[in-house]
From TrEMBL:
Belongs to the glycosyltransferase 1 family. Bacterial/plant glycogen synthase subfamily. It comes from Gossypium barbadense. Coiled coil: none annotated. Residues 102-129, 148-172 are annotated as: Disordered. It comes from the Eukaryota. GO terms for molecular function: alpha-1,4-glucan glucosyltransferase (ADP-glucose donor) activity; alpha-1,4-glucan glucosyltransferase (UDP-glucose donor) activity. The lineage of its organism: Eukaryota, Viridiplantae, Streptophyta, Embryophyta, Tracheophyta. InterPro entries: GS/SS (IPR011835), Starch_synth_cat_dom (IPR013534). It catalyses: [(1->4)-alpha-D-glucosyl](n) + ADP-alpha-D-glucose = [(1->4)-alpha-D-glucosyl](n+1) + ADP + H(+). SUPFAM superfamilies: UDP-Glycosyltransferase/glycogen phosphorylase (SSF53756). One of its GO terms (biological process) is starch biosynthetic process. This is starch synthase. Residues 115-129 have a biased composition (Polar residues). Keywords: Amyloplast, Chloroplast, Glycosyltransferase, Plastid, Starch biosynthesis, Transferase, Transit peptide.
Length: 759
């Protein structure tokens, strides 16, 4: 299970009839029960306090995956709507007055098993109103109509699980361990809470009639709560507890793409069925998170520091914010302050983040360290995999917990003098992990280097960037370490949050003359947004003139100086240019200068506005991204989603995501140039402008192809899941030895996936 579960599973099989029944018990409620038969399909019902609140379709091995899944989900929806057919057992016999159809099809002495379908489900309610339903089971079964209670059933002790006698779910494992295992024999049905041992057989005819009647009554049952409930996605056998740790998380804190990733990727992973948490600092008084009353003390550089935790649950994700005086009132300068202060903040953050699954309950239950994977992001959290190994794995704790380190920008590494090692609180033999020789600065302390060496897997935010960081030019001194462990490196292109960045629903396009649009209304919708943007910025409102935009930090990396070199050529063309960003003071002044010199053609917006960024993306025809290096880049994805054509420098994620336009095959999404040079930018932009003016059909095809792409996080989440699974089954030498010792004592086989050993 993805979360820490306290229930155990037992299996009852009538081998002579190939009937397979599965259920899960806990002391406060009987969790689930299902029976599988000939069609090899089943349904798992989950119930709490007598109310059906969730159902999970399950598939039995041997079925076609797609057909089985669709059939099971469809059947599950129908069966869930029959919740009114399930009633509480307050005595030996279920009160059948609530369902007259059952009187016609069943004898009143029917046992506490309610078969609603010959191939789908069996549910039983206990005294406390809970329902038994199935756990995931794989088997081939025959005919459910031939199930008969074993003759030995009456000789076995009953399992009595009343809410009065059980205090919490945490006791279920202990309870089942103390129960005589002979009570659950493979050829008998479970002994349900009832004082009567009588059983009534359903003949095949009765069972068929009952199934028909039950399914006919489905159309008469309408429950809005059930109808609005969608079946959870099937994530397979590798459902995990995932904790993403980042120094920023949108919308609460954001300085760049990292905040977007921390706010969106977890939601996509949660949609795949995983239990997901995000851990970030609490820089300000956020509205949604609430103090959960947990306090922990950590020692940082000889000082005791208290951390409190705030929690909110949004879109299937637990968001945990760490509150401490070191983080407060820094929302406008997250990475500001002296180097020593920044290091202390990150040390405290990583130390506390590792222990979050132990001490911070989400929904009343901690994540625990079973089936757990951490996703650390950039150098700010690169200490997390180091602490996981040094403080826990080396001491026999969290042995099977894994860590993934994501590189968003390798240029920032957490460097400092070797004396900084004293502040991280690690054993002396870990000092060499942090040593890195720089040809310019000599030997120095490097946090990213230690994180790369100790993480189980390393991910970058695009395939192109994964290749670049292996090179001398792109690795920024870490290329040697990356090449030594390149087997654990993988590039995964970021996605975009389709709730925030979608021209059909964008809230920033619903006023001031802007309008929402789709691929069907692209032409009039984008023309209206263009006119509204020109009017808002004080530019001449002209539909025929190409409107070009730039959104980004004003620094050397983003290539603003390359645009500045190309400005004289641009001003000789009939076009308009809009630039939005903040950064280096000299480049900010350059934007103001451009606007003063070319007031009818250029607008330079110094600063950043989310609303303006959305409106520029929707209103411009062309977006420039001449970045010298770009690990992934999101603005080009936003642009294509809004029908805006990107002109980009083919580096990193820009190369991966912007396929160059091919006029002969009418393919591609934009234009690229191969070096960070103004002449190359002018050449690519010139071809783009020619197509805009002379080849309207090709231009329209470019825009539509861009909008038709699936740029959501769902694709990226699937690839992240593959990396998490690879890390999950990656065994360290000590772990494999532990498995071998345990298997020799209990005849337990080593999994196939445990064959890979790190040396």
């Amino acid at each position: 299970m993805a979360s820490i579960g306290c229930s155990s599973t037992f299996i009852i099989e009538r081998k002579s009839r190939h009937v397979f029944t599965s259920s899960t018990l806990s002391p406060t409620k009987i969790e689930n029960l299902a029976v599988f038969s000939g069609s090899t399909r089943g349904v798992s019902l989950f119930c709490n306090r007598g109310q059906l609140w969730r159902f999970k379709p399950v598939r039995i091995a041997g079925d076609d995956p797609e057909g089985s899944l669709q059939f099971t989900i469809k059947k599950s929806k129908k069966i869930a709507e029959t919740r009114k057919l399930v009633s509480s057992l307050k005595s030996n016999i279920t009160d059948l007055d609530e369902n007259e159809a059952f009187h016609e099809q069943r004898d009143k002495s029917l046992p506490d098993v309610d078969l609603t379908s010959s191939s789908s489900i069996s549910t039983v309610e206990g005294k406390n109103g809970s329902i038994l339903s199935s756990s995931h089971v794989t088997s081939t079964v025959k005919d459910i109509s031939e199930i008969q209670p074993s003759d030995e059933a009456g000789d076995e002790p009953e399992v009595h699980l009343s809410s009065e006698k059980a205090s919490s779910d945490l006791g279920s494992t202990k309870l089942l361990k103390t129960t005589d295992s002979k009570a659950f024999k493979s050829d008998m049905l479970p002994s349900f809470p009832s004082s009567s041992s009588d059983a009534v057989l359903l003949t095949s005819v009765e069972n068929e009639n009952l199934t028909k009647t039950s399914l006919e009554m489905v159309g008469e049952v309408h429950d809005p709560a059930v109808e609005s409930t969608k079946p959870p996605p099937l994530a397979g056998a590798n459902v995990m507890n995932i904790i993403l740790v980042a120094a920023e998380c949108a919308p609460w804190s954001k300085t760049g793409g990292l905040g977007d990733v921390a706010g969106s990727l977890p939601k996509a992973l949660a949609r795949r069925g995983h239990r997901v948490m995000v851990v970030a600092p609490r820089y300000a008084e956020y509205v949604e998170p609430r103090d959960i009353g947990v306090r922990k003390m950590y020692k940082v550089d000889g000082q005791d520091m208290e951390v409190s935790y705030f929690h909110t649950y949004i879109d299937g994700v637990d968001f945990i914010f760490m509150d401490t005086p070191m983080f407060r009132h820094m929302q406008y300068n997250i990475y500001g302050g002296k180097r020593e202060d920044i290091l202390k903040r990150m040390v405290l953050f990583c130390k506390a983040a590792v222990e979050v699954p132990w001490y911070v309950p989400c929904g009343g239950v901690c994540y625990g360290d079973g089936n757990l994977v951490f996703i650390a992001n950039d150098w700010h959290t690169a200490l997390l995999p180091v602490y996981l190994k040094a403080n826990y794995r080396d001491n026999g704790l969290m042995s099977f917990t894994r860590s993934i380190l994501v590189i968003h920008n390798i240029a920032y590494q957490g460097r400092g003098p070797m004396e900084d090692f004293c502040s991280v609180g690690l054993p002396d033999h870990y000092k060499d992990l942090f040593k890195l020789y720089d040809p310019v600065g000599g030997e120095h302390f490097n946090i990213f280097a230690a994180g790369l060496k100790t993480a189980d897997r390393v991910v970058t935010v695009s395939h192109g960037y994964a290749w670049e960081i292996r090179t001398l030019e792109g690795g920024w001194g870490l290329h040697g370490i990356i090449n030594e462990c390149d087997w654990k490196l993988q590039g995964i292109v970021n996605g975009i949050d389709m709730e925030d960045w979608n021209p059909q629903h964008d809230v920033h396009l619903q006023s001031d003359g802007y309008t929402n649009y789709s691929i069907e209304t692209l032409q009039p919708g984008k023309a209206q947004c263009k006119a509204a943007l020109q009017k808002e910025l004080g530019l001449p409102v002209r539909e025929d003139v190409p409107l070009i935009g730039f959104i980004g930090r004003l620094d050397h990396q983003k290539g603003v100086d390359i645009i500045a070199e190309a400005i004289p050529w641009m001003m000789d063309q009939d076009l308009q240019l809009v630039l939005l960003g903040t950064g280096r003071q000299d480049l900010e002044e350059l934007l103001r200068q451009f606007e003063d010199q070319h007031h009818d053609k250029v607008r330079g917006w110094v600063g950043f506005s989310v609303e303006t960024a959305h409106r520029i993306t929707a209103g411009v025809d062309i977006l420039l991204m001449p970045s010298r290096f770009e690990p992934c880049g999101l603005n080009q994805l936003y642009a294509m989603c809004y029908g805006t054509i990107p002109v980009v420098h083919a580096v990193g994620g820009l190369r991966d995501t912007v396929q160059p336009f091919n006029p002969f095959e009418e393919s591609g999404f934009g234009w690229t140039f191969d070096s960070a040079d103004a002449s190359k930018l002018i050449h690519a932009l010139g071809n783009c402008l020619l197509t805009y003016r002379e080849y309207k059909e090709s231009w329209d095809g470019l825009r539509r192809r861009g909008m038709m792409q699936d740029l959501s996080w769902d694709n990226a989440a699937q690839k992240y899941e593959e990396v998490l699974v690879a890390a999950k089954y990656q065994c360290q030498v000590g772990e494999l030895a532990e498995i071998l010792v345990r298997s020799s004592c209990s005849d337990e086989l080593v999994p196939e996936n445990a064959a890979s050993v790190d040396k």
